[in-house]
């Protein structure tokens, strides 16, 4: 019978708040996405609010399925104890994550390009979606190439940046709460402007937190030979 040492047990206990927090962050958008997929695959009445999804369901379905997969598997990837204990699983799920992440980013760019802009959004939000989508693709590619050359810190850093961008969907639920308190009617330019601030702020906040973690976990720099 295999016994688990105390240090391993402590690492696992420290992992679960990380995993649980990330999954909790993705909970609301995941539930909303699952309902959207169920509606589109089961047949839903076409309305002004959902016309773009009904007329072109493929990108939103790919986006939602990819995002849920990316959020859950990604949460486990960032649990240090779980990652060390299940190295083979980490490698296999990492490949799945690359595909899921690219599906999320590319389908997001697809929707941004071909879907009509709803009244709740404005040009600034749409432009930021392009920037974020391209950034996520580049981050995943750089993270993948980094692990191929065994640069573990660069791999972790770029994958963390890509994950931070994707998880902004959960953060946007939080940053959009003040919109419910403002006396602004949905569909107006003022509402779209405030929503843009909430959405862009979530992307910036997530990336800022990721950068702090990346810098704190960076390996110490080796002193230059002959430096005084």
From TrEMBL:
Matching InterPro entries: DUF2306_membrane
Residues passing through the membrane, by range: 18-38, 58-76, 96-115, 127-147, 159-181, 193-214
Cross-referenced Pfam families: DUF2306 (PF10067)
Keyword DNA-binding annotated: no
Keyword entries, A-Z: Membrane, Transmembrane, Transmembrane helix
The protein's name in its UniProt record: DUF2306 domain-containing protein
Organism: Dactylosporangium vinaceum
Lineage of the species this protein comes from: Bacteria, Bacillati, Actinomycetota, Actinomycetes, Micromonosporales
């Amino acid at each position: 019978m295999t016994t688990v040492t105390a240090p391993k047990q402590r690492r696992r206990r420290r992992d679960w708040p990380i995993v649980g927090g990330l999954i909790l962050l993705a909970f609301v958008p995941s539930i909303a996405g699952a309902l959207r997929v169920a509606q589109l695959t089961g047949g839903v009445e076409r309305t002004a609010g959902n016309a773009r999804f009904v007329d072109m369901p493929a990108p939103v379905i790919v986006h939602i399925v990819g995002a849920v997969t990316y959020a859950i598997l990604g949460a486990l990837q960032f649990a240090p104890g779980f990652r060390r204990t299940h190295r083979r699983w980490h490698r296999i799920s990492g490949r799945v994550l690359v595909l899921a992440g690219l599906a999320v980013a590319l389908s997001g760019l697809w929707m941004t390009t071909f879907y009509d802009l709803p009244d709740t959004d404005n040009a600034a939000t749409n432009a930021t979606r392009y920037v974020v989508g391209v950034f996520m693709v580049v981050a995943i590619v750089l993270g993948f190439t980094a692990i191929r050359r065994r640069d573990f810190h660069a791999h972790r850093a770029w994958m963390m940046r890509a994950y931070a961008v994707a998880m902004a969907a959960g953060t946007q639920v939080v940053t959009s709460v003040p919109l419910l308190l403002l006396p602004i009617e949905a569909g107006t330019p003022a509402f779209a402007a405030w929503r843009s601030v909430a959405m862009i702020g979530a992307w910036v906040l997530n990336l800022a937190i990721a950068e702090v973690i990346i810098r704190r976990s960076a390996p110490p720099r080796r002193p230059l030979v002959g430096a005084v």
